[in-house]
Amino acid sequence: MNIGITTVIYYAIEVYTWLIFIRIILSWVRVNPYQPVVRFIFETTEPVLGFFRRLIPPVGMIDFSPIAAFLALQILATVVIRLLHSIGIY
Fold it and tell me: Hey, what's the signal peptide range on this chain (predicted)?
């Protein structure tokens, strides 16, 4: 079984996207912020979401940073994987 670098990059971005999605769900329900899994999810996703939150401030009670992060991650995955394929790295 041969796992290429593009597969690893694709799945890493997929996992990070799911972590952001889980964080969105957790923000709607009452959770213990000191629970290790919740803390891991928040600490892992905050750098990216914080960056986009500074670029696109929340409008009222709606935070658009996860949407921007989803789009940026998908664009990043597409560009990086196509670039690697174009130079012959699989």
Answer: none
Amino acid (1-letter code) at residue 10:
Y
Whole-prediction pTM = 0.89
Q: What is the pLDDT of residue 2?
A: 63
Contact 33, 21 (CB under 8 A): no
Task: Collect all residues with Cβ–Cβ distance below 8 Å to 41 and sequence separation of at least 6.
Answer: 19, 22, 23, 26
Q: Does pLDDT of 81 surpass 90?
A: yes
Average pLDDT over residues 28-51: 96
Residue 86, C-beta contacts closer than 8 angstroms, at least 6 positions apart:
none
Residue 57: both structure tokens together: 């401030």
DSSP strands (E only) in 1-90: none
Domain boundaries, the chain: 2-87
